[in-house]
Write a structure and sequence with these properties.
Blueprint lengths: L1 H60 L2 H10 L6 E2 L6 E2 L5 E8 L16 E8 L5
Antiparallel strand pairs: 1-3, 2-3, 3-4
């Protein structure tokens, strides 16, 4: 009789351990997914803000390099960049750019095949401000 009770306890502990491990794995995966989604939203805002800063600078100075530097200067994080080849001033003064943001997550950032999901690429655009 004593032996049955001890076996029953180890079955429950084994089942509970597996359940906790599964919940932890699912929790980390959800956290990484939410982090990547939030990074995409933040990067979109940052890209549009950078384009607006560049557009205002271009309207004032009419210099593409100065506008590009204004866009770079408006970026709030070192994890964001605007490749020069993606920065464009259209004939009407509209600024178009592509922002790259690298997101550091708990797990995906450290696993080779998942690393590609941590790079967020978004497009930003702003028309020249009017007076």
């Amino acid at each position: 009789m004593d032996r049955r009770r001890r076996d029953g306890g180890s079955i429950v502990i084994g089942w509970l351990t597996k359940l906790i491990v599964v919940i932890a794995i699912v929790g980390v995966a959800m956290f990484d997914s939410i982090s990547i989604g939030a990074a995409r939203l933040g990067a979109t805002d940052d890209a549009n803000n950078a384009a607006e800063a560049a557009s205002a600078d271009y309207r004032t100075y009419h210099n593409v390099n100065s506008a590009y530097q204004a866009a770079l200067g408006s970026l709030p994080s070192d994890s964001e960049s605007i490749p020069a080849k993606t920065f464009e001033v259209l004939p009407d003064g509209t600024i178009s750019l592509v922002l790259h943001r690298t997101t550091r997550t708990l797990v995906a950032y450290r696993i080779g095949p998942l690393k590609k999901y941590t790079l967020v690429v978004v497009h930003g655009e702003a028309t020249p401000p009017t007076l």
